[in-house]
């Protein structure tokens, strides 16, 4: 079982400013990625079929901490049901085109 980071509050997430990946707790693999330019986006690191991947969940602050947690939990539930979340996202995107 992966280590779970200390859960961060919305205020603590807002105060993050150091470049890199910052685990936010609550859901293993969920974190806020901050680039050198200062852009922020939610990233969910998942393992499916023995392959580790990263899924973007949207930009911060447009996607709040609570919404990022909800999205990560839904993706985790898909994985638990045996659904590849990245492939599922591609199929959904193609259907919308």
Count of extended strands: 4
The ordered H/E elements are HEEEEHH
Q: Count up the domains.
A: 1
- Main sheet characteristics: 4 strands, antiparallel
CATH superfamily: Integrase, DNA-binding domain
Q: And the CATH topology?
A: Double Stranded RNA Binding Domain
Compute the number of helices.
3
N→C terminal distance? 38 Å
The assigned CATH architecture is 2-Layer Sandwich
Mean pLDDT: 88
Query: How would you classify the helix and strand content by structural class?
Result: alpha+beta
Q: Which residue ranges are poorly predicted, with pLDDT under 50 across at least 5 consecutive positions?
A: none
Biggest β-sheet: strands ordered side by side in the sheet: 1-2-3-4
Binned, the helix content reads 25-40%
Strand content: 25-35%
What is the highest CATH level, the class?
A: Alpha Beta
| Radius of gyration, whole Å | 14 Å
Shape: globular
Structure description:
This protein has 97 residues and is of the alpha+beta class. Helices cover 35% and strands 28% of the residues. The chain has 3 helices and 4 strands. It has helices at 10-15, 65-80, 85-96, and strands at residues 20-23, 30-34, 40-48, 51-59. A 4-stranded antiparallel β-sheet has the order 1-2-3-4, covered by helices on one side. The model has no long low-confidence stretch (mean pLDDT 88).
Quick structural summary:
This protein is of the alpha+beta class. The chain is 35% helix and 28% strand. A hairpin with a 2-residue loop joins β3 (40-48) and β4.
Tag the structure with descriptive keywords.
97 residues, 3 helices
